[in-house]
């Protein structure tokens, strides 16, 4: 069974009292363990599509199946669907509270899921991405950009997702750190059998990471 299947998915953004369609009739099928790339210029709709797949924008139409679950337009993701589809943002501050120590931020979803051995899970997660677990007791601003992005990856992986959505995860980093993060993601994909969708404007990043890719322009898949 496919891990991700989109059929004629269109996405809208709210502008005042109106909805404006920014993605038009996208159909994709992505198999388990595959890394699929979406490449295109800024504003082409690739991030808008990813945010819908993460459950962060309810304004969409069409048919969307993720990790064996049927998503419904206009409805929030709940239960296993919410846990099994996780996102890593371009700016790690989007998922790390600036005034909370990292351990507190990472522990909160695990507490909601009633997981045991939370501190041990967090420490293992840091080791898993090549970070000293002692960094978990710092604030986000006390880490470098590359370290923060690794922590954002830990945040997503702690929930044991099946699908990892990556929205320009290295574009804010310098070239040497970009390579480290991309190699880490490749290692995690192989080890954890993750299905990934990687959004990027950089064809070289897509070529390095992805098994297949599609190009978007003006809100549509064009090749």
Give a written overview of the molecule.
By secondary structure, the protein is of the alpha/beta class. The protein has a single domain (4-221), classed as P-loop containing nucleotide triphosphate hydrolases (Rossmann fold). The chain is built from seven helices and ten strands. The protein has helices at residues 46-53, 79-84, 102-112, 118-128, 145-157, 175-192, 203-209, and strands spanning 4-15, 18-30, 35-39, 60-66, 69-71, 85-88, 163-167, 195-200, 212-217, 220-221. The strands form two sheets. The protein has a six-stranded mixed sheet with strand order 6-7-8-3-9-10, sandwiched between helices. Strands 2-1-4-5 form a four-stranded antiparallel sheet, with helices on one face. A hairpin with a 2-residue loop joins strand 4 (60-66) and strand 5 (69-71). Helix 4 (118-128) crosses helix 5 (145-157). The longest helix is centred in the last third of the chain and has 18 residues, at 175-192. The protein starts with a strand and ends with a strand.
Short description:
By secondary structure, the chain is α/β, with parallel strands linked by helices. It has helices at residues 46-53, 79-84, 102-112, 118-128, 145-157, 175-192, 203-209; strands spanning 4-15, 18-30, 35-39, 60-66, 69-71, 85-88, 163-167, 195-200, 212-217, 220-221.
Outline the secondary-structure elements.
Elements: E1 4-15, E2 18-30, E3 35-39, H1 46-53, E4 60-66, E5 69-71, H2 79-84, E6 85-88, H3 102-112, H4 118-128, H5 145-157, E7 163-167, H6 175-192, E8 195-200, H7 203-209, E9 212-217, E10 220-221
Helix pairs in contact: 4-5
């Amino acid at each position: 069974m496919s891990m991700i299947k989109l059929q004629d998915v269109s996405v809208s953004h709210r502008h005042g009292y109106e909805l404006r369609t920014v993605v038009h009739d996208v159909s994709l099928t992505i198999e388990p363990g595959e890394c699929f790339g979406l490449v295109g210029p800024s504003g082409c709709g690739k991030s808008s599509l990813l945010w819908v797949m993460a459950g962060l924008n309810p304004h969409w139409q069409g048919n969307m199946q993720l990790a064996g679950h049927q998503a419904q337009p206009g409805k929030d993701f709940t239960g296993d669907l919410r846990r099994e589809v996780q996102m890593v943002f371009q700016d790690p501050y989007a998922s790390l509270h600036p005034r909370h120590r990292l351990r507190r931020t990472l522990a909160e979803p695990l507490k909601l899921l009633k997981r045991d051995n939370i501190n041990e899970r967090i420490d293992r997660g840091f080791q898993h991405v090549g970070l000293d677990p002692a960094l978990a007791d710092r604030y986000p601003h006390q880490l470098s950009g590359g370290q923060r992005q690794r922590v954002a990856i830990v945040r997503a992986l702690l929930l044991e997702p099946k699908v990892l959505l990556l929205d320009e995860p290295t574009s804010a980093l310098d070239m040497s750190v970009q390579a480290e993060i991309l190699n880490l993601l490749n290692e995690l994909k192989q080890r954890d059998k993750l299905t990934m969708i990687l959004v990027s404007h950089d064809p070289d990043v897509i070529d390095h990471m992805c098994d297949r890719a599609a190009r978007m322009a003006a809100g549509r898949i064009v090749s």
